[in-house]
Give the backbone structure.
Amino acid sequence: MTDEESKPRYVISVAAQMVGIEAHTLRYYERLGLIQPERSSGNIRLYSEDDIERLRHIKALMSDCGVNLAGVEVALRLMQRMKEMQREIEEMERKIKKVAEAKMEDVMEDVMKDIVEDVEWKEL
């Protein structure tokens, strides 16, 4: 998620039009906690690109898959958890790579020492 995607910019009527649902439906989703748009200083709802994408997921789950709102809530929580787990896996992979590279450096250092010792013994 980039800063641009999370920047609130669309008022409720524009967001509703972009997603293809009614503004009152967006308010209802907010009451249910499915979406949390930012608020301007004048208390106007402002939706980000991330919010729009989330709303599109909600709409697809309901209209294409026949999932009810309770199911949508569960599915969204699961998708969020999967994203978190994916980030954790990527972080672990980076750490493992660092450890492997450090171990490889140690192994190479040991091999070089052995080679130098072998050469020194042969010269004697």
